[in-house]
Amino acid sequence: MPISEDVLKSSELAVIRLRALYSRYGYTRFEMNNFEEYELYARNKSFLVSDDVITFTGYGGKLMALRPDVTLSIVKNSSDDRHRKLYYNENVYRATADRDFRERMQMGVECVGDVGAYEVGETLYLAGASLAEVGENYCLDVSHLGFLSGLIDAAGFTGDAREVVLRLIGEKNAPELRRVCAERGVSADLTARLASLAKLYGEFDETVGELELISVNAETDAAIAELRAAHAVVKTLGGAGFRLDFSAMNDLRYYNGIIFRGYVEGVHTAVLSGGQYDNLMRSFGKRSGAIGFAVFLDLLGELHTQRRAVSDVLLIFGDSDGDEVARAVRELTDAGYSVRAQREIRGDESTAKVAHIKNGRVKFDD
Amino acid sequence: MIDIALPKGRLGEQVYDMLERCGYGCPAIHAESRKLIFEGERARYFWVKPSDVAIYVERGAADVGIVGKDILLEYSPDVYELLDLGVGKCRMAVAGKRDFSDDFDRPLRVATKFTHIAREHYDHRNREIDIIKLNGSIELAPILGLSDVIVDLVETGKTLAENGLEVLETILHFSARLIANKVSYKFKHDETEQLAAAVSGLLARG
Question: Which of A185, A223, B73, B135 could pair with A147 in a Cys bridge, judged by C-beta atoms 3.0 to 4.6 Å apart?
Protein backbone atom coordinates (compact mmCIF):
# COMPACT_ATOMS: atom_id res chain seq x y z
CA MET A 1 0.00 0.00 0.00
CA PRO A 2 1.49 3.37 -0.96
CA ILE A 3 1.70 5.69 2.05
CA SER A 4 0.43 9.20 1.75
CA GLU A 5 2.49 11.85 3.54
CA ASP A 6 -0.75 13.26 4.93
CA VAL A 7 -0.97 10.55 7.57
CA LEU A 8 2.39 11.50 9.07
CA LYS A 9 3.02 14.14 11.70
CA SER A 10 5.61 16.74 10.68
CA SER A 11 8.16 15.20 13.05
CA GLU A 12 7.55 11.68 11.69
CA LEU A 13 7.91 12.91 8.15
CA ALA A 14 11.11 14.69 9.12
CA VAL A 15 12.54 11.48 10.57
CA ILE A 16 12.01 9.62 7.30
CA ARG A 17 13.42 12.41 5.14
CA LEU A 18 16.44 12.97 7.40
CA ARG A 19 17.23 9.24 7.54
CA ALA A 20 17.26 9.20 3.73
CA LEU A 21 19.48 12.28 3.67
CA TYR A 22 22.06 10.95 6.15
CA SER A 23 22.13 7.51 4.51
CA ARG A 24 22.92 9.17 1.18
CA TYR A 25 26.24 10.34 2.66
CA GLY A 26 27.14 7.01 4.23
CA TYR A 27 26.02 7.65 7.79
CA THR A 28 24.78 4.57 9.61
CA ARG A 29 22.17 4.32 12.32
CA PHE A 30 23.39 4.18 15.90
CA GLU A 31 20.93 2.71 18.39
CA MET A 32 21.44 2.79 22.07
CA ASN A 33 20.01 1.88 25.39
CA ASN A 34 17.69 4.35 27.10
CA PHE A 35 19.56 3.94 30.34
CA GLU A 36 23.10 4.93 31.21
CA GLU A 37 25.04 4.96 34.43
CA TYR A 38 24.58 8.34 36.05
CA GLU A 39 28.29 8.77 36.48
CA LEU A 40 28.75 9.50 32.78
CA TYR A 41 26.64 12.66 33.15
CA ALA A 42 27.88 13.60 36.61
CA ARG A 43 31.41 13.80 35.24
CA ASN A 44 30.36 15.96 32.30
CA LYS A 45 27.48 17.87 33.83
CA SER A 46 28.21 21.20 32.22
CA PHE A 47 28.17 19.62 28.77
CA LEU A 48 24.43 19.15 29.17
CA VAL A 49 23.92 22.94 29.18
CA SER A 50 20.65 23.05 31.10
CA ASP A 51 18.13 21.09 33.08
CA ASP A 52 18.67 18.05 35.20
CA VAL A 53 19.10 14.38 34.60
CA ILE A 54 16.33 12.00 35.67
CA THR A 55 17.86 9.31 37.85
CA PHE A 56 16.75 6.06 39.42
CA THR A 57 18.39 3.29 41.38
CA GLY A 58 19.41 0.28 39.31
CA TYR A 59 20.17 -3.28 40.40
CA GLY A 60 22.85 -3.46 43.03
CA GLY A 61 22.18 0.11 44.13
CA LYS A 62 23.91 1.68 41.14
CA LEU A 63 22.60 5.14 40.27
CA MET A 64 21.22 5.10 36.74
CA ALA A 65 19.96 7.86 34.45
CA LEU A 66 17.37 8.15 31.72
CA ARG A 67 19.54 9.28 28.84
CA PRO A 68 19.52 13.12 28.72
CA ASP A 69 21.83 13.35 25.74
CA VAL A 70 23.13 11.17 22.93
CA THR A 71 26.52 12.67 22.10
CA LEU A 72 28.13 11.57 25.38
CA SER A 73 27.04 7.97 24.77
CA ILE A 74 28.55 8.07 21.28
CA VAL A 75 31.80 9.59 22.51
CA LYS A 76 32.03 6.96 25.23
CA ASN A 77 31.63 4.23 22.62
CA SER A 78 34.07 5.67 20.09
CA SER A 79 37.59 4.41 19.65
CA ASP A 80 40.59 6.22 18.24
CA ASP A 81 41.33 3.63 15.57
CA ARG A 82 37.93 3.85 13.90
CA HIS A 83 36.45 6.58 11.77
CA ARG A 84 32.70 6.62 12.24
CA LYS A 85 29.85 8.45 10.62
CA LEU A 86 26.66 7.91 12.56
CA TYR A 87 23.16 9.21 12.85
CA TYR A 88 20.65 8.57 15.59
CA ASN A 89 16.97 9.08 16.20
CA GLU A 90 16.33 8.86 19.91
CA ASN A 91 14.29 10.34 22.71
CA VAL A 92 16.16 12.16 25.43
CA TYR A 93 14.86 12.89 28.90
CA ARG A 94 15.32 15.93 31.09
CA ALA A 95 13.94 17.30 34.30
CA THR A 96 13.36 21.00 33.75
CA ALA A 97 13.93 23.87 36.17
CA ASP A 98 10.20 24.14 36.90
CA ARG A 99 10.14 20.52 38.05
CA ASP A 100 8.64 19.10 34.92
CA PHE A 101 9.78 15.88 33.27
CA ARG A 102 10.25 16.13 29.56
CA GLU A 103 10.77 13.66 26.74
CA ARG A 104 12.23 15.20 23.60
CA MET A 105 12.64 13.61 20.22
CA GLN A 106 16.03 14.29 18.76
CA MET A 107 17.74 13.30 15.56
CA GLY A 108 21.40 13.89 14.96
CA VAL A 109 24.59 13.24 13.11
CA GLU A 110 28.07 12.64 14.52
CA CYS A 111 31.32 12.26 12.64
CA VAL A 112 34.09 10.90 14.86
CA GLY A 113 37.67 10.31 13.76
CA ASP A 114 39.66 12.44 11.34
CA VAL A 115 37.91 15.76 11.13
CA GLY A 116 39.33 18.02 8.45
CA ALA A 117 37.98 20.66 6.06
CA TYR A 118 35.86 18.13 4.17
CA GLU A 119 34.22 16.65 7.28
CA VAL A 120 33.42 20.09 8.68
CA GLY A 121 31.97 21.18 5.34
CA GLU A 122 29.98 17.97 4.91
CA THR A 123 28.49 18.33 8.40
CA LEU A 124 27.49 21.92 7.67
CA TYR A 125 26.03 20.83 4.34
CA LEU A 126 23.97 18.14 6.08
CA ALA A 127 22.85 20.65 8.71
CA GLY A 128 21.62 23.04 5.99
CA ALA A 129 19.97 20.20 4.06
CA SER A 130 18.28 19.01 7.28
CA LEU A 131 16.80 22.48 7.80
CA ALA A 132 15.59 22.55 4.19
CA GLU A 133 13.78 19.26 4.84
CA VAL A 134 11.94 20.51 7.90
CA GLY A 135 11.08 24.14 7.12
CA GLU A 136 10.33 26.32 4.13
CA ASN A 137 12.29 29.34 5.24
CA TYR A 138 15.42 28.58 7.23
CA CYS A 139 18.90 29.81 8.02
CA LEU A 140 22.08 28.20 9.27
CA ASP A 141 24.27 30.49 11.38
CA VAL A 142 27.91 29.66 11.90
CA SER A 143 30.42 30.91 14.45
CA HIS A 144 34.05 29.98 15.14
CA LEU A 145 35.21 29.63 18.73
CA GLY A 146 38.84 30.00 17.67
CA PHE A 147 38.07 33.42 16.28
CA LEU A 148 36.19 34.43 19.42
CA SER A 149 38.87 33.34 21.83
CA GLY A 150 41.64 34.80 19.62
CA LEU A 151 40.01 38.22 19.69
CA ILE A 152 39.07 38.09 23.38
CA ASP A 153 42.61 37.04 24.31
CA ALA A 154 44.01 39.90 22.24
CA ALA A 155 41.83 42.30 24.24
CA GLY A 156 43.30 40.84 27.43
CA PHE A 157 40.15 39.46 29.05
CA THR A 158 40.63 36.56 31.42
CA GLY A 159 38.62 34.69 34.05
CA ASP A 160 35.24 36.18 34.93
CA ALA A 161 35.63 39.13 32.55
CA ARG A 162 36.08 36.68 29.69
CA GLU A 163 32.79 35.00 30.58
CA VAL A 164 31.08 38.39 30.69
CA VAL A 165 32.39 39.32 27.23
CA LEU A 166 31.30 35.98 25.78
CA ARG A 167 27.83 36.46 27.25
CA LEU A 168 27.57 39.99 25.82
CA ILE A 169 28.58 38.82 22.36
CA GLY A 170 25.96 36.07 22.75
CA GLU A 171 23.36 38.78 23.46
CA LYS A 172 24.59 40.96 20.56
CA ASN A 173 24.84 43.58 23.27
CA ALA A 174 27.27 46.02 21.64
CA PRO A 175 26.46 49.00 23.94
CA GLU A 176 27.22 47.04 27.13
CA LEU A 177 30.30 45.51 25.50
CA ARG A 178 31.68 48.98 24.81
CA ARG A 179 31.02 49.92 28.41
CA VAL A 180 32.87 46.87 29.76
CA CYS A 181 35.81 47.54 27.43
CA ALA A 182 36.00 51.16 28.58
CA GLU A 183 35.99 50.06 32.23
CA ARG A 184 38.85 47.67 31.58
CA GLY A 185 40.90 50.12 29.55
CA VAL A 186 40.71 48.14 26.31
CA SER A 187 42.00 50.17 23.35
CA ALA A 188 39.49 51.94 21.10
CA ASP A 189 40.60 49.79 18.18
CA LEU A 190 39.98 46.45 19.94
CA THR A 191 36.73 47.73 21.42
CA ALA A 192 35.48 48.59 17.93
CA ARG A 193 36.47 45.13 16.69
CA LEU A 194 34.63 43.37 19.53
CA ALA A 195 31.52 45.50 19.02
CA SER A 196 31.57 44.83 15.25
CA LEU A 197 31.88 41.10 15.89
CA ALA A 198 28.85 41.17 18.21
CA LYS A 199 26.79 42.93 15.54
CA LEU A 200 28.08 40.94 12.56
CA TYR A 201 25.29 39.08 10.82
CA GLY A 202 24.71 38.06 7.21
CA GLU A 203 25.40 35.67 4.35
CA PHE A 204 28.97 34.37 4.40
CA ASP A 205 30.02 35.97 1.10
CA GLU A 206 28.70 39.36 2.19
CA THR A 207 30.18 39.38 5.70
CA VAL A 208 33.51 37.53 5.45
CA GLY A 209 35.17 40.76 4.24
CA GLU A 210 34.09 42.51 7.42
CA LEU A 211 35.32 39.57 9.48
CA GLU A 212 38.75 39.99 7.88
CA LEU A 213 38.79 43.59 9.04
CA ILE A 214 38.02 42.44 12.59
CA SER A 215 40.73 39.76 12.58
CA VAL A 216 43.70 40.59 14.85
CA ASN A 217 46.16 37.71 14.95
CA ALA A 218 47.25 34.37 13.54
CA GLU A 219 44.54 32.54 15.51
CA THR A 220 41.73 34.65 14.10
CA ASP A 221 43.24 34.47 10.59
CA ALA A 222 43.35 30.67 10.84
CA ALA A 223 39.70 30.62 11.91
CA ILE A 224 38.72 32.61 8.82
CA ALA A 225 40.65 30.18 6.62
CA GLU A 226 38.71 27.29 8.19
CA LEU A 227 35.40 29.05 7.65
CA ARG A 228 36.31 29.73 4.02
CA ALA A 229 37.28 26.10 3.42
CA ALA A 230 34.07 24.84 5.03
CA HIS A 231 31.95 27.26 3.01
CA ALA A 232 33.59 26.12 -0.21
CA VAL A 233 32.80 22.48 0.60
CA VAL A 234 29.16 23.29 1.39
CA LYS A 235 28.79 25.13 -1.93
CA THR A 236 30.45 22.38 -3.96
CA LEU A 237 28.19 19.75 -2.38
CA GLY A 238 25.24 21.82 -3.62
CA GLY A 239 24.31 23.54 -0.37
CA ALA A 240 22.92 27.04 0.00
CA GLY A 241 25.82 28.19 2.16
CA PHE A 242 25.49 29.69 5.61
CA ARG A 243 25.49 32.96 7.50
CA LEU A 244 28.05 34.24 9.93
CA ASP A 245 26.82 34.98 13.45
CA PHE A 246 29.11 34.93 16.46
CA SER A 247 26.28 35.06 18.96
CA ALA A 248 25.95 31.28 18.73
CA MET A 249 27.77 30.08 21.83
CA ASN A 250 28.81 26.72 23.19
CA ASP A 251 30.90 25.76 26.17
CA LEU A 252 34.57 26.26 25.29
CA ARG A 253 35.55 23.42 27.61
CA TYR A 254 33.99 20.94 25.19
CA TYR A 255 33.74 22.70 21.89
CA ASN A 256 36.37 24.20 19.66
CA GLY A 257 36.43 25.51 16.11
CA ILE A 258 33.22 25.80 14.15
CA ILE A 259 29.87 25.79 15.94
CA PHE A 260 26.45 26.47 14.45
CA ARG A 261 22.71 26.89 15.00
CA GLY A 262 19.81 26.32 12.64
CA TYR A 263 16.56 28.27 12.63
CA VAL A 264 13.27 27.71 10.86
CA GLU A 265 10.76 30.50 10.44
CA GLY A 266 7.78 29.82 12.69
CA VAL A 267 9.68 28.12 15.51
CA HIS A 268 10.66 30.45 18.35
CA THR A 269 14.10 29.02 19.08
CA ALA A 270 16.92 27.11 17.34
CA VAL A 271 15.77 23.75 15.92
CA LEU A 272 19.32 22.62 15.20
CA SER A 273 22.52 22.97 17.16
CA GLY A 274 25.99 21.58 16.61
CA GLY A 275 29.70 22.03 16.46
CA GLN A 276 33.14 20.57 16.65
CA TYR A 277 33.86 18.97 20.05
CA ASP A 278 37.45 17.75 20.04
CA ASN A 279 37.83 19.01 23.61
CA LEU A 280 35.07 16.69 24.81
CA MET A 281 36.92 13.79 23.16
CA ARG A 282 40.07 14.82 25.05
CA SER A 283 38.19 14.79 28.34
CA PHE A 284 37.43 11.12 27.59
CA GLY A 285 41.10 10.53 26.84
CA LYS A 286 40.57 10.18 23.07
CA ARG A 287 42.77 11.67 20.40
CA SER A 288 40.23 11.74 17.56
CA GLY A 289 38.34 14.80 16.44
CA ALA A 290 34.57 14.97 16.32
CA ILE A 291 31.82 17.13 14.88
CA GLY A 292 28.07 16.74 14.85
CA PHE A 293 24.68 18.28 15.35
CA ALA A 294 21.22 17.53 16.68
CA VAL A 295 17.81 18.44 15.27
CA PHE A 296 15.13 19.02 17.91
CA LEU A 297 12.16 17.39 16.24
CA ASP A 298 9.69 18.08 19.04
CA LEU A 299 9.93 21.81 18.28
CA LEU A 300 8.55 21.25 14.78
CA GLY A 301 5.10 20.93 16.34
CA GLU A 302 5.08 24.75 16.44
CA LEU A 303 5.04 24.84 12.65
CA HIS A 304 1.66 23.25 12.02
CA THR A 305 -0.83 24.51 14.50
CA GLN A 306 -3.85 24.34 12.20
CA ARG A 307 -6.16 21.51 12.94
CA ARG A 308 -5.94 18.80 10.36
CA ALA A 309 -9.00 17.00 9.03
CA VAL A 310 -9.57 13.68 10.75
CA SER A 311 -10.47 12.05 7.43
CA ASP A 312 -11.55 12.91 3.88
CA VAL A 313 -15.07 11.72 4.53
CA LEU A 314 -17.17 11.56 7.65
CA LEU A 315 -19.72 8.80 7.08
CA ILE A 316 -22.83 9.13 9.25
CA PHE A 317 -24.58 5.77 9.28
CA GLY A 318 -27.50 6.30 11.65
CA ASP A 319 -29.51 3.09 12.06
CA SER A 320 -27.90 1.15 9.17
CA ASP A 321 -26.73 -2.33 10.10
CA GLY A 322 -23.08 -3.33 10.44
CA ASP A 323 -22.75 -5.02 7.07
CA GLU A 324 -24.39 -2.10 5.29
CA VAL A 325 -21.94 0.29 6.94
CA ALA A 326 -19.00 -1.96 6.08
CA ARG A 327 -20.03 -2.00 2.43
CA ALA A 328 -20.29 1.79 2.37
CA VAL A 329 -16.91 2.16 4.03
CA ARG A 330 -15.40 -0.30 1.55
CA GLU A 331 -16.88 1.67 -1.35
CA LEU A 332 -15.27 4.85 -0.09
CA THR A 333 -11.85 3.41 0.77
CA ASP A 334 -11.76 1.66 -2.63
CA ALA A 335 -12.34 5.08 -4.18
CA GLY A 336 -9.25 6.33 -2.34
CA TYR A 337 -10.88 8.28 0.50
CA SER A 338 -10.02 8.02 4.14
CA VAL A 339 -13.23 7.44 6.08
CA ARG A 340 -14.42 7.89 9.62
CA ALA A 341 -17.69 6.09 10.25
CA GLN A 342 -19.87 7.04 13.18
CA ARG A 343 -23.54 6.91 14.10
CA GLU A 344 -24.17 10.64 14.31
CA ILE A 345 -22.47 14.04 13.97
CA ARG A 346 -21.04 15.17 17.27
CA GLY A 347 -19.94 18.57 16.12
CA ASP A 348 -16.25 18.25 16.98
CA GLU A 349 -15.17 16.57 13.75
CA SER A 350 -13.35 18.46 11.05
CA THR A 351 -13.61 16.64 7.77
CA ALA A 352 -13.67 17.74 4.20
CA LYS A 353 -16.89 15.93 3.25
CA VAL A 354 -19.86 14.47 5.08
CA ALA A 355 -21.80 11.50 3.69
CA HIS A 356 -24.86 9.50 4.78
CA ILE A 357 -26.11 6.04 3.90
CA LYS A 358 -29.42 6.20 1.99
CA ASN A 359 -31.07 2.97 0.82
CA GLY A 360 -27.81 1.10 1.22
CA ARG A 361 -25.84 3.63 -0.86
CA VAL A 362 -23.36 6.33 0.04
CA LYS A 363 -24.74 9.80 -0.53
CA PHE A 364 -22.55 12.88 -0.07
CA ASP A 365 -24.15 15.91 1.56
CA ASP A 366 -24.07 19.09 -0.52
CA MET B 1 5.62 44.77 9.84
CA ILE B 2 7.37 44.37 13.13
CA ASP B 3 5.63 43.22 16.32
CA ILE B 4 6.57 45.25 19.38
CA ALA B 5 5.70 44.35 22.98
CA LEU B 6 5.43 47.45 25.18
CA PRO B 7 5.30 47.41 28.96
CA LYS B 8 2.04 48.86 30.30
CA GLY B 9 2.59 52.09 32.18
CA ARG B 10 4.71 55.20 32.02
CA LEU B 11 7.82 53.56 30.63
CA GLY B 12 5.89 51.97 27.76
CA GLU B 13 4.28 55.31 26.88
CA GLN B 14 7.61 57.11 27.02
CA VAL B 15 9.21 54.57 24.68
CA TYR B 16 6.21 54.59 22.36
CA ASP B 17 6.70 58.36 21.95
CA MET B 18 10.32 57.72 20.98
CA LEU B 19 9.26 55.12 18.43
CA GLU B 20 6.62 57.48 17.04
CA ARG B 21 9.28 60.14 16.55
CA CYS B 22 11.34 57.55 14.66
CA GLY B 23 8.52 56.98 12.20
CA TYR B 24 6.90 53.95 13.82
CA GLY B 25 3.73 55.73 14.85
CA CYS B 26 0.32 54.20 15.25
CA PRO B 27 -2.33 56.93 15.80
CA ALA B 28 -4.96 54.47 17.09
CA ILE B 29 -2.87 53.84 20.18
CA HIS B 30 -3.81 57.23 21.62
CA ALA B 31 -7.54 56.53 21.46
CA GLU B 32 -9.00 55.60 24.82
CA SER B 33 -9.95 51.98 24.50
CA ARG B 34 -9.53 48.58 26.05
CA LYS B 35 -7.92 47.16 22.96
CA LEU B 36 -4.65 45.33 23.50
CA ILE B 37 -3.29 45.33 19.95
CA PHE B 38 -2.72 48.37 17.74
CA GLU B 39 -1.59 48.20 14.16
CA GLY B 40 0.29 51.03 12.49
CA GLU B 41 1.88 51.13 9.05
CA ARG B 42 5.27 49.76 10.03
CA ALA B 43 4.66 48.26 13.44
CA ARG B 44 2.08 46.41 15.46
CA TYR B 45 2.06 47.19 19.16
CA PHE B 46 0.70 45.33 22.11
CA TRP B 47 0.63 46.27 25.77
CA VAL B 48 1.65 43.59 28.24
CA LYS B 49 2.58 43.42 31.90
CA PRO B 50 6.17 44.74 32.22
CA SER B 51 7.51 41.50 33.66
CA ASP B 52 5.91 39.54 30.79
CA VAL B 53 7.55 41.48 27.94
CA ALA B 54 10.62 39.24 27.97
CA ILE B 55 8.43 36.13 27.79
CA TYR B 56 6.52 37.42 24.74
CA VAL B 57 9.80 38.18 23.01
CA GLU B 58 11.62 34.99 24.02
CA ARG B 59 8.73 32.85 22.76
CA GLY B 60 8.50 34.83 19.51
CA ALA B 61 5.00 36.29 20.03
CA ALA B 62 6.69 39.67 19.65
CA ASP B 63 9.74 40.37 17.45
CA VAL B 64 11.10 43.03 19.78
CA GLY B 65 10.17 44.44 23.15
CA ILE B 66 11.00 47.08 25.71
CA VAL B 67 12.01 45.78 29.09
CA GLY B 68 13.85 46.92 32.19
CA LYS B 69 17.33 45.51 32.75
CA ASP B 70 16.12 44.34 36.17
CA ILE B 71 13.75 41.86 34.50
CA LEU B 72 16.54 40.66 32.18
CA LEU B 73 18.86 40.01 35.12
CA GLU B 74 16.15 38.34 37.18
CA TYR B 75 14.87 35.95 34.51
CA SER B 76 17.80 35.69 32.02
CA PRO B 77 15.58 35.21 28.97
CA ASP B 78 17.26 33.85 25.83
CA VAL B 79 17.04 37.03 23.72
CA TYR B 80 19.27 39.60 22.04
CA GLU B 81 19.76 42.86 23.91
CA LEU B 82 20.23 45.46 21.19
CA LEU B 83 20.05 48.89 22.81
CA ASP B 84 20.15 50.74 26.10
CA LEU B 85 17.29 53.22 25.76
CA GLY B 86 18.53 55.39 28.63
CA VAL B 87 14.99 55.84 29.98
CA GLY B 88 13.17 54.19 32.88
CA LYS B 89 16.24 54.68 35.00
CA CYS B 90 16.20 53.31 38.50
CA ARG B 91 18.38 51.30 40.82
CA MET B 92 18.13 48.01 42.62
CA ALA B 93 18.95 48.60 46.25
CA VAL B 94 19.03 47.03 49.64
CA ALA B 95 16.85 49.02 52.03
CA GLY B 96 15.94 48.69 55.66
CA LYS B 97 14.98 50.59 58.78
CA ARG B 98 17.15 53.61 59.52
CA ASP B 99 18.59 51.99 62.61
CA PHE B 100 19.33 48.66 60.90
CA SER B 101 22.60 46.93 61.58
CA ASP B 102 23.42 43.49 60.25
CA ASP B 103 23.56 40.74 62.84
CA PHE B 104 26.04 38.20 61.47
CA ASP B 105 24.92 35.70 64.06
CA ARG B 106 22.07 34.42 61.91
CA PRO B 107 20.96 34.37 58.27
CA LEU B 108 19.79 37.75 56.99
CA ARG B 109 16.08 37.74 56.17
CA VAL B 110 15.57 39.42 52.78
CA ALA B 111 12.13 40.23 51.38
CA THR B 112 12.04 40.79 47.61
CA LYS B 113 10.32 40.24 44.30
CA PHE B 114 13.74 39.77 42.69
CA THR B 115 14.93 36.56 44.33
CA HIS B 116 17.60 35.79 41.75
CA ILE B 117 19.24 39.21 41.90
CA ALA B 118 19.11 39.20 45.72
CA ARG B 119 20.65 35.73 45.93
CA GLU B 120 23.45 36.62 43.49
CA HIS B 121 24.23 39.77 45.42
CA TYR B 122 24.60 38.00 48.79
CA ASP B 123 26.26 34.90 47.27
CA HIS B 124 29.05 37.16 46.09
CA ARG B 125 29.83 38.18 49.64
CA ASN B 126 29.13 34.72 51.03
CA ARG B 127 26.41 36.02 53.36
CA GLU B 128 23.80 33.42 54.23
CA ILE B 129 20.31 34.73 53.61
CA ASP B 130 16.72 33.63 54.03
CA ILE B 131 14.73 34.82 51.01
CA ILE B 132 11.11 35.82 51.50
CA LYS B 133 9.48 36.14 48.11
CA LEU B 134 6.79 38.83 47.98
CA ASN B 135 4.84 40.17 45.02
CA GLY B 136 4.12 43.72 46.14
CA SER B 137 4.25 46.25 49.00
CA ILE B 138 7.72 44.97 49.79
CA GLU B 139 8.30 47.97 52.08
CA LEU B 140 5.91 46.51 54.63
CA ALA B 141 8.17 43.57 55.38
CA PRO B 142 10.84 45.26 57.56
CA ILE B 143 8.24 47.47 59.23
CA LEU B 144 6.27 44.45 60.40
CA GLY B 145 9.40 42.50 61.24
CA LEU B 146 8.80 39.98 58.45
CA SER B 147 12.30 40.63 57.16
CA ASP B 148 15.47 42.47 58.14
CA VAL B 149 15.93 44.18 54.78
CA ILE B 150 14.36 44.36 51.34
CA VAL B 151 15.88 44.23 47.87
CA ASP B 152 13.78 46.34 45.53
CA LEU B 153 13.72 48.93 42.78
CA VAL B 154 14.15 52.48 43.95
CA GLU B 155 13.33 55.43 41.74
CA THR B 156 13.20 58.50 44.01
CA GLY B 157 13.34 56.92 47.46
CA LYS B 158 10.16 58.78 48.48
CA THR B 159 8.12 55.68 49.34
CA LEU B 160 10.98 54.41 51.47
CA ALA B 161 11.38 57.68 53.36
CA GLU B 162 7.66 57.97 54.06
CA ASN B 163 7.79 54.55 55.69
CA GLY B 164 10.84 55.20 57.81
CA LEU B 165 13.16 53.19 55.58
CA GLU B 166 16.31 54.15 53.74
CA VAL B 167 18.64 52.79 51.10
CA LEU B 168 21.47 50.87 52.75
CA GLU B 169 23.36 50.07 49.58
CA THR B 170 22.88 50.19 45.83
CA ILE B 171 23.28 46.90 43.99
CA LEU B 172 22.99 48.07 40.39
CA HIS B 173 21.71 50.90 38.21
CA PHE B 174 19.16 49.98 35.56
CA SER B 175 17.48 51.36 32.49
CA ALA B 176 15.14 50.08 29.79
CA ARG B 177 16.50 47.94 26.96
CA LEU B 178 15.39 47.05 23.44
CA ILE B 179 15.39 43.26 23.16
CA ALA B 180 14.77 41.01 20.15
CA ASN B 181 13.72 37.42 19.66
CA LYS B 182 16.69 35.47 18.31
CA VAL B 183 14.76 33.84 15.46
CA SER B 184 12.87 37.00 14.42
CA TYR B 185 16.20 38.79 14.36
CA LYS B 186 17.33 36.38 11.63
CA PHE B 187 14.22 36.45 9.51
CA LYS B 188 13.39 40.13 9.99
CA HIS B 189 17.00 41.23 10.20
CA ASP B 190 16.81 44.39 8.12
CA GLU B 191 13.58 45.56 9.74
CA THR B 192 14.93 44.98 13.24
CA GLU B 193 18.26 46.68 12.54
CA GLN B 194 16.47 49.65 10.91
CA LEU B 195 14.35 50.10 14.02
CA ALA B 196 17.38 49.82 16.32
CA ALA B 197 19.35 52.26 14.18
CA ALA B 198 16.48 54.78 14.12
CA VAL B 199 16.12 54.70 17.91
CA SER B 200 19.86 54.82 18.39
CA GLY B 201 20.00 57.88 16.12
CA LEU B 202 17.27 59.56 18.14
CA LEU B 203 19.16 58.86 21.38
CA ALA B 204 22.37 60.27 19.92
CA ARG B 205 20.59 63.48 18.91
CA GLY B 206 19.28 63.69 22.47
Answer: A223
With beta carbons less than 8 A apart as the criterion, state whether A81 and A23 touch.
no
Going through chain A in order, the beta strands assigned E by DSSP cover 28-29, 35-37, 54-57, 63-66, 84-95, 101-113, 138-144, 201-203, 243-245, 258-264, 272-276, 289-296, 313-316, 339-342, 353-358, 361-364
Q: Do A171 and B181 touch (CB under 8 A)?
A: no
Chain A residues inside the 8 Å CB shell of B73:
none
pLDDT along chain A (366 residues), means of 10: 72 89 93 78 68 80 83 80 87 79 89 92 97 92 95 92 93 94 94 95 96 95 96 95 90 87 93 92 87 92 69 86 90 88 77 81 83
Q: Say whether A175 and B83 touch across the interface (CB within 8 A).
A: yes
Q: Rounded to a whole number, what is the distance in Å from the CA of A266 to chain B's nearest CA?
A: 8
B182, A139: Cβ pair inside 8 Å?
no
Cβ separation B80–A263 shorter than 8 A: no
Report, in angstroms and rounded to the nearest whole number, the Rg of chain B calculated over CA atoms.
Answer: 19
Contact pairs from chain A to chain B, CB under 8 Å:
47
Cβ A204 vs Cβ A212: under 8 Å: no
Phi, psi of A19, deg, nearest 5: -60, -40
